[in-house]
From TrEMBL:
Keywords: Antiport, Cell membrane, Ion transport, Membrane, Transmembrane, Transmembrane helix, Transport. It is found in: Cell membrane. One of its GO terms (molecular function) is antiporter activity. This is Multidrug-efflux transporter. GO terms for biological process: monoatomic ion transport. GO terms for cellular component: plasma membrane. The chain crosses the membrane at residues 12-31, 51-79, 99-117, 137-154, 166-189, 195-220, 258-279, 285-305, 326-350, 362-380, 392-416, 422-442. It comes from Aequorivita xiaoshiensis. It is a multi-pass membrane protein. Pfam families: MatE.
C-alpha cells in the first residue's frame, strides 16, 4: 500500500512541495534559537556576569554543535535518496546506521568538551569573575551533546523523508518546557536546588533529553515513515564511509561559518565598543535573514535529494531553479524592507546613542541590499548537498568567509582606511561573489554528472 502511495516531493507541483517543506523547517529553526533568548532573559536577572559567562561559552559550543549538525546532514541526503527511490529497506537501514554513527560521535565530542572546558575558558580569556560559571555552564552543556545530536539526527531523518512537521511539534513542546525549567534550576524552588548559571544548562540538557527520547521512540516504533532497529546498528564500513564523505564537508562548512564570525569580531573590537554595539545590532538583523535562508536551503536539499533518488534529474534541476528564484527575489524584497526601516530598528535596540544608531543603520543598509544573493547561495548549497556533493558547499563557504569577507574587511577598514564602513561593505561583496560563483557552478551541470555516475546508493546492500 505504501509502495503505490504518491510521493508529493517527486510528483505534482514543485512550488507547493517547496513551501510545505520550507515553512516548518524555518519555524523549527526559529524555535530552536529561542533557547538562547530564554536563557539570556532568566540569567539577566542574576546580573551581567551571568550573561557574560554564557556569552563567552556560546561561540565554542556553537562550533562543536556545527560539527554535529553537519554530520547529521548526511542522514537527510541518504534518506531522501532512498525515499525517492522507494527503497524502504534502505531508508530504515541507513537511518539506523546514521543514529549509530551520530551516537558514537556525540559521546566522543561530549567527553572531549567536558574535560577541555577549563583550558578552553582560560584560553579565550575568561575573567576571574566569570571563569567558574563559564566552566560549569560549558561542562553541563557538554553532557547534553549526546541528547542534542540524537535529536539533530532525528530531525534530519524526518526532513529527508519529507515529514517536517513532527520535529516542529517536539521543538515547540521543549521550548515551552525550557521556559518553565530555566527559572526552576537557576533559582531553585522547594526541594529543587538552584544551580545559578549552570542551572540554565541543566534545564537545556533536560529538555534535550526529553526531545531525543521522544524522537528515538518514534524512530523505533516506525509509524512515521522510518523504522530503526538495534540489529542494524553496527560498523558497516561502506555505509559509514558514505555518511562520513557526505557529512564531514558539511561539518567543515558549518564550523567554518562559526569560526568566520568569531574572527570577524577581532577586527570589529579594534574600533571600540560603539562599533561592537553597531555590529551586534546588524548581526541580529542578519540572523533574521539567515534562519529562513537556511530553512529554504534545507528544504531544497530534501526536494532535490528525493528527486535524484527517483532518478528524476530534470525535476531536481527545476526544483533547484525555482527555489533559487523564490530565494533571490524573496530575500531581495526583505532586504529592501530592512533598508527602509534600518534606522528605527537600530533605535529600538539602542534608543539613546546617536553614534551607534548612525553606524548600525549604515551597516544594515549596506548589508541588506545583498540579501537576495545570500539566499541564492544557501539554495545552491542546498542543491549541492541534496546531490551528495557537499564538498562544493564547503568550498563556497570557505571562499566566501576566508578568501573574501575576512581579508576584505581588513583591507578596506585598514589598508584603504575606510574604518568600520569597510567591514560593513565586506558583507555584501562576499555575498554577491559567493552567490555568483555558486550559481555559475550549478549551471555547469557537474553536480548532475556526478549523480548520473553514482547510482550505487540505489543498490547499497546491508
Amino acid at each position: 500500500m505504501t509502495a503505490t502511495k504518491k510521493n508529493k516531493l517527486t510528483e505534482g507541483k514543485i512550488l507547493s512541495s517547496l513551501i510545505s517543506l520550507a515553512l516548518p523547517i524555518i519555524f523549527a529553526n526559529i524555535l530552536q534559537s529561542a533557547y538562547q533568548l530564554i536563557d539570556t532573559f532568566w540569567l539577566g536577572r542574576l546580573g551581567a556576569d551571568a550573561v557574560a559567562a554564557v556569552s563567552l561559552s556560546f561561540p565554542l559550543l556553537f562550533l562543536v554543535l556545527s560539527l554535529g549538525a553537519g554530520l547529521t546532514l548526511a542522514g537527510t541526503v541518504l534518506v531522501a535518496r532512498y525515499k525517492g527511490a522507494e527503497n524502504q529497506r534502505q531508508v530504515d537501514f541507513s537511518s539506523s546506521q546514521s543514529v549509530f554513527f551520530i551516537f558514537l560521535t556525540s559521546i566522543v565530542l561530549a567527553i572531549i568538551s567536558y574535560f577541555a572546558a577549563a583550558p578552553l575558558m582560560e584560553l579565550i580569556g575568561a575573567g576571574p569573575d566569570i571563569i567558574d560559571d563559564s566552566i560549569q555552564y560549558f561542562k553541563v552543556s557538554s553532557l547534553g551533546f549526546v541528547f542534542l545530536f540524537l535529536f539533530f539526527i532525528f530531525q534530519s531523518l524526518m526532513r529527508g523523508i519529507g515529514n517536517v512537521m513532527l520535529p516542529v511539534y517536539i521543538v515547540l513542546f521543549t521550548v515551552i518546557l525550557n521556559a518553565v525549567l530555566d527559572p526552576l534550576f537557576i533559582y531553585g524552588y522547594g526541594f529543587v536546588p538552584g544551580y545559578g548559571v549552570a542551572g540554565a544548562a541543566v534545564a537545556s540538557v533536560a529538555t534535550q533529553a526529553m526531545a531525543s527520547t521522544i524522537g528515538l521512540i518514534i524512530l523505533f516504533r516506525g509509524k512515521h515513515g522510518i523504522k530503526i532497529s538495534l540489529s542494524s546498528m553496527y560498523f558497516n564500513m561502506e555505509n559509514l564511509k558514505r555518511t562520513f564523505n557526505i557529512g564531514f564537508p558539511a561539518s567543515i562548512e558549518q564550523s567554518t561559518r562559526a569560526l568566520g564570525m568569531t574572527f570577524m569580531m577581532v577586527i570589529v573590537t579594534s574600533f571600540g565598543s560603539d562599533i561592537v554595539a553597531a555590529y551586534g545590532i546588524g548581526a541580529r538583523m542578519l540572523s533574521f535573514i539567515v534562519i529562513p535562508a537556511l530553512g529554504l536551503g534545507i528544504a531544497t536539499t530534501s526536494l532535490v535529494g528525493q528527486n535524484i533518488g527517483a532518478l528524476k534529474i530534470k525535476r531536481a534541476e527545476k526544483a533547484a531553479i525555482l527555489s533559487a528564484k523564490v530565494s533571490f527575489f524573496g530575500f531581495t524584497g526583505l532586504g529592501l524592507l530592512l533598508f527602509l526601516v534600518a534606522e528605527p530598528l537600530t533605535t529600538f535596540f539602542i534608543p539613546e546613542d546617536p553614534e551607534v544608531i548612525q553606524d548600525g543603520t549604515l551597516f544594515i543598509k549596506i548589508m541588506s541590499l545583498s540579501f537576495g544573493f545570500l539566499g541564492l547561495q544557501q539554495v545552491m548549497n542546498g542543491t549541492f548537498n541534496g546531490s551528495g556533493f557537499t564538498k562544493a558547499s564547503m568550498f563556497i563557504s570557505i571562499m566566501s568567509l576566508w578568501l573574501v569577507r575576512f581579508p576584505l574587511a581588513y583591507l578596506l577598514s585598514y589598508t584603504f582606511e575606510m574604518g568600520p564602513e569597510g567591514i560593513w561593505w565586506s558583507f555584501p561583496i562576499s555575498n554577491i561573489i559567493a552567490a555568483i560563483g555558486a550559481f555559475t557552478y550549478f549551471k555547469t551541470g557537474y553536480w548532475k554528472k556526478r549523480v548520473i555516475r553514482d547510482r550505487s546508493f540505489l543498490t547499497l546492500q546491508d
